[in-house]
Each structure stands twice: as C-alpha cells, then as structure tokens.
Design brief:
This protein has about 270 residues and is mainly α. The chain has one domain. It has 11 helices and no strands.
Length: about 270
C-alpha cells in the first residue's frame, strides 16, 4: 500500500469511532467510500464490519439507556429479511458494480441531507408503525449489507419522530448495533462452509480482511472518545458541510470511475 492508501484507511477507522459517538452527521457514510478507495470494494466491506461492531460496543457504553427501544421492534424483522436479500445478491456483483452501488448510495445520501429539513419540516410528528418499520427495515438491511450504508434509511425513520438529540443518537447506536451483529455471521461464511448457492464463493470476512481490521481496531475507541468530546463542546454544522463535500467527491469517484485518487496508486 502507498502512504496515501494507509492514511485513508487510518482516517476511515478513526471516522467510524467519531460517527458512532454521534458527531459529524454523514461522517459514518464516508468511511465505506474511503475504505473502498484504499482496499477495493469487496475487501472494504469485510474490513469495515468488525470495526463497526467494535464502534457500536464503545458507543453503547456512552449512550446506555438513552434510546427508544420500541424502534427495534419496528425495524428488526425487516432488517433480517433485507440482510438475507443483500447477502444473496452481493456475491453476484463484480467489483465495478459494487463500486457503482456504493457510489450511488453516497450521492443519494448527500441529496437526502440537502432536502431532509425541508421535507420533514412540512410533516407533523411521525408515529412509527410495524408495517412502515418493516419496509424501512428491509431497505436498511439491503443497503447495510451492500455498503454499510443504511444511515439515510434509518435517519428517515427516526428523524420525523422528533426525538431529543441525545435520544436520537442513542437510538441510532442501538439500531445499528443490532443491524451489524445480525450481518456478522452471514459475512463470515461461504459456500465451502455451507453448501448454499446464495452465499458468496469466498467469505466477505476472511483471514485477510481480519488482519487489516485488527491493525485498524485501536483507532475505534480513540474515535469514539473524540466524537463524544466534540459532541459536547463544538457545533458540528461547518464540519458536517465539509463531510458532505467529501462524501460527494468519493461518490463521484466511485460512480464515474474518475481519476481523483491517482495519488493513492503505487508509482512505477
């Protein structure tokens, strides 16, 4: 790996912790495109999931009990179905197709951030229900499996409930903890372990990706601590605007295969 690739990987791991602590708005969605730029789409998805699970555990400690637990009952049945669909499909995509899917999710996220305040301001307080939660859960499970990109889907379900900020963050942490741990066993098996034709030929999380995850793991608690500290002391609006711009650039890079990251590749 080039120094640029190593730097991008380190930043992605640090950003996981910061975003899991509830600071930085779309920072969490930036981690997948960054990791894809450093490692390629298929390895990136496997590298990130153990780091996300670790970040969830550290975040649960900081936000323990500060959530609306009933949202799990609305979302999780659909999440399980969405993860099963996502795992069944992910093994059929080429690296380029995965890049395209991740890039489109990144661009869709930026668009969602631009319009969400206008859309939700016009609506009354949303009262969640099981049928609506099932639909959002399926969408969250699929997008999370493909790109760890369920943030916009979960936000669209939670934001209209007008939760206090700390309860919103705590509920988000709780929901994503469950989503990520539901995905974990499916990411660790392949057709050699279980003769099911819908599983990927190679486990998404394997010895190669685990070594990289282990090397990046120490940055997760550092990022969570930093995010909690920033959340209590600073306004995130200006910071978030920078993050949206970075997500936009990373999404354009992946969708159009632009040469924005030529400096990451080895020379000669």
């Amino acid at each position: 790996m080039t120094p640029g690739q190593i730097l991008i990987a380190l930043l992605a791991a640090l950003f996981i912790g910061v975003s899991k602590a509830g600071f930085g708005g779309g920072l969490g969605l930036l981690t997948t495109p960054l990791t894809v730029l450093a490692f390629g789409a298929k390895d990136a998805i496997g590298i990130l999931l153990p780091l996300l699970c670790a970040g969830d555990l550290f975040s649960l400690y900081h936000y323990w009990g500060k959530w609306r637990r009933e949202n799990l009952a609305y979302l999780l049945p659909g999440v399980v179905g969405g993860v099963l669909v996502g795992v069944r499909l992910i093994g059929r995509f080429s690296a380029r197709e995965l890049n395209l899917a991740i890039g489109l999710l990144a661009l869709g996220f930026v668009l969602f951030q631009l319009v969400k305040e206008r859309v939700f301001r016009a609506e009354g307080v949303f009262r969640p229900s099981h049928p609506v939660g099932l639909l959002f859960g399926v969408a969250a499970g699929i997008t999370s499996t493909f790109a760890h990109g369920a943030g916009p889907v979960v936000s669209m379900f939670l934001i209209p409930q007008r939760l206090p900020k700390e309860i919103f963050v705590g509920t988000t942490v709780l929901v994503f903890t469950w989503i990520n741990w539901i995905k974990l066993p499916f990411f660790c098996v392949d057709r050699a372990a279980l003769p099911l034709d819908w599983l990927p030929a190679e486990a998404i999380i394997n010895a190669r990706t685990l070594r990289t995850s282990a090397a990046l793991l120490p940055l997760i608690p550092v990022g969570v601590w930093l995010g909690v500290w920033l959340n209590r002391r600073f306004s995130e609006r200006s910071f978030v605007n920078v993050i949206y711009a970075l997500v936009l650039l990373a999404g354009l890079q992946l969708v159009f295969d632009l040469d924005l990251t030529a400096w990451l590749r080895p020379r000669g």
